[in-house]
Give the backbone structure.
Amino acid sequence: MAGNAESTWFGDDVATFGDRLEAAREAANLSIEELAQRLGVRDTTLAAWEADEWEPRGNRLQMLAGMLNVSLMWLMTGRGAGMGGPLDEAALPLGARLALAEITELRGQMQLLTEKLRRAEQKLEAEMQEAVA
């Protein structure tokens, strides 16, 4: 029964496309601005997608699914490989909780390194443009 509830947590009858997009973005620890930049769209566009005011085109949907590590089917309908319902961490065995904490810490470190890499790339690009000018 719990598995069934998990599989429908983000289903069409419970959540909208925008709800799923926002949840997946937050699970990836990305701000609207960060994800919009990676997608090459304005942050207002991404915010409108999350608010279900607009819908992205097919190529952006594919990019979103890949960047957020969910299936396109889940993003569109809530079915398939995506996110389950909320996790009750207290119910997990100690080893699983420790592994989850380590994964969370590693994700944070990866995000910091990704941001550092982005800044270094911007600096290199600016230096190269200056050298050419």
Notes: Residues 1-7 have pLDDT under 50 and may be disordered.
